[in-house]
């Protein structure tokens, strides 16, 4: 198998794995702390992919797939991931060279922005205001960011992929 094909399969595999991780059920008590895996993996690829693989179209398709798998309002996660990818791609050259602690804070800001966007979408859909614990997910996701980033980066380097 050529290196380009292996690189493509690794890229697609990580995105599919993130969608599957999103489906893993947690106990009801831990559900508010569930990380937003598709956003984290999409952010990783937006920062580390030098080619044009990551774009708003891919973010939209990934979001629609996540919407269909989760059974939420169609387009909700697609909109969220498009906004997230747009901001990450816009500031990619800066975010990429931040130290890990600053990158983690930037990821936290992006994920809190994502929660605000989700709150607006759900308000337009007529849903009730979520409880305060609903805001814990971006902080858990940001805490996992350094580990996920280093894990994906290490695996990508071991496979010697672009």
TrEMBL record:
Q: Which keywords belong to this entry?
A: Cell inner membrane, Cell membrane, Cell shape, Membrane, Transmembrane, Transmembrane helix
One GO term under biological process is: regulation of cell shape
Membrane topology annotation: Multi-pass membrane protein
Q: Where in the cell is it found?
A: Cell inner membrane; Cell membrane
Give the domain of life.
Answer: Bacteria
One Gene Ontology cellular component term attached to this UniProt record is: plasma membrane
Q: TM spans, by residue? A: 7-30, 132-152
Q: What does this protein do?
A: Involved in formation of the rod shape of the cell. May also contribute to regulation of formation of penicillin-binding proteins.
Which family would the database say this protein is a member of? Belongs to the MreD family.
Instruction: Cite the NCBIfam families for this sequence.
Output: shape_MreD
Instruction: Indicate what this protein is called per its UniProt record.
Output: Rod shape-determining protein MreD
């Amino acid at each position: 198998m050529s290196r380009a094909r292996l690189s493509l399969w690794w890229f697609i595999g990580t995105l599919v794995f993130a969608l599957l991780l999103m489906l893993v059920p947690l106990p009801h008590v831990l559900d508010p702390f569930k990380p937003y895996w598709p956003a984290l993996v999409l952010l990783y690829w937006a920062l580390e992919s030098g080619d044009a693989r990551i774009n708003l179209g891919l973010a939209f398709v990934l979001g629609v797939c996540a919407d269909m798998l989760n059974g939420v309002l169609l387009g909700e996660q697609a909109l969220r991931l498009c906004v997230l990818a747009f901001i990450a791609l816009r500031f990619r050259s800066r975010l990429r060279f931040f130290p890990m602690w600053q990158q983690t804070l930037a990821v936290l800001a992006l994920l809190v922005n994502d929660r605000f966007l989700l709150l607006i979408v759900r308000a337009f859909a007529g849903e009730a205001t979520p409880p305060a614990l609903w805001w814990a997910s971006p902080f858990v996701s940001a805490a996992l960011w350094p580990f996920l980033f280093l894990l994906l980066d290490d695996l990508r380097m071991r496979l010697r992929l672009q």
